[in-house]
Design brief:
The structure is a single chain. 48% of the residues lie in helices and 18% in strands. A six-stranded antiparallel β-sheet has the order 5-4-3-8-7-6, sandwiched between helices. The chain is globular and about 55 Å long. The protein folds into two domains: 72 residues, Orthogonal Bundle (Arc Repressor Mutant, subunit A), CATH 1.10.10; 171 residues, 2-Layer Sandwich (Beta-Lactamase), CATH 3.30.450. By secondary structure, the chain is of the alpha+beta class. α1 packs across α3, α2 packs across α3 and α5 packs antiparallel against α10. It has ten helices and eight strands. A hairpin with a 5-residue loop joins β7 and β8.
């Protein structure tokens, strides 16, 4: 399934820019989690003026899609989002069939294990299960988003998209190197995509947070599209040599199990 980039405005549709801005704010609010976010932070991250962000948030609040903590002033997901999500879950949510697999992955490896889903040009973490090893990485948790190709889950998905989709994605996002570092330049990302396809799973050698490594494997729809990913994160010394290869084998086995289960639904 080709998933379009849902973030840019559709200028040919009346009102599309306002809807795109509001949708972007909704994603930012949900990504902030239980702590919420200030209007200033949301305006900055959405590349909006503070008055524009406040006006859109206020409109979303009237519809119940966001809420505001009157004590802290932070904006939070609203009750209507929960109701909408509950209805949509029956069609899109795979966490019910994946949670035991993610848990098994954490138990087998003793590392933190995750399920992420592709949403447009990003991945969103849906499930986190911590392993028993006491030193953990907290780069990823439920609701956190990364562009494709940045975290190991997104790199695994990007690597198994059709080549023309990879080209189009890199053309749409020339800002990746500036935001995430030189290792995310188009040339270096293409090299990592090729390495991932050859290996079968993606490796992130501390490119987001120094010393925090990750490995990811794509999970496929019945038609063979990489729509989800399983991943592991942990400290660098746990991801070297033969152990990295063993983690990759375990990860691929669990990803195959989940792909098979999803196809059978």
């Amino acid at each position: 399934m080709d998933t379009p980039d849902t973030r840019g405005p559709r200028s040919t549709v009346p009102g599309a820019q306002a809807i795109a801005r509001a949708a972007h704010l909704l994603r930012l609010v949900t990504a902030a989690g239980d702590a919420g976010a200030t209007v200033g932070d949301l305006a900055h991250d959405a590349d909006l003026t503070r008055p524009t962000a406040h006006r859109l948030l206020s409109a979303l609040r009237l519809e119940g899609l966001v809420d505001r903590d009157d004590t802290t002033g932070h904006w939070l997901p609203g009750p209507e989002l929960y109701l909408m999500g509950s209805v949509a879950a029956s069609r899109f949510d795979v966490t019910a069939v994946a949670r035991d697999i993610v848990r098994s992955l954490a138990v087998r490896t003793e590392e933190s294990a995750f399920l992420s889903v592709r949403r447009g040009d990003e991945t969103v973490c849906l499930v986190r299960e911590d392993g028993s090893f006491p030193i953990r990485s907290f780069v990823l948790s439920e609701g956190v988003r990364f562009p494709l190709g940045v975290a190991s889950a997104g790199l695994a998905i990007l690597a198994f998209l059709p080549p023309q989709d990879v080209d189009a994605y890199l053309e749409r996002h020339p800002e990746l190197a500036e935001r995430w570092g030189a290792s995310h330049s188009p040339a270096r990302l293409r090299t990592r995509v090729a390495d991932t396809k050859a290996r079968g799973y993606a490796v992130n050698p501390g490119l987001i947070v120094e010393g925090s490594w990750g490995v990811g494997a794509a999970v496929f729809t019945r038609s063979g599209d990489p729509q989800w990913a399983l991943s592991l994160t942990g400290v660098e010394f746990r991801f070297g040599g033969e152990r990295l290869a063993e983690l990759g084998r375990i990860l691929l086995a669990h990803a195959h199990q989940l792909s098979t289960r999803i196809a059978a639904r």
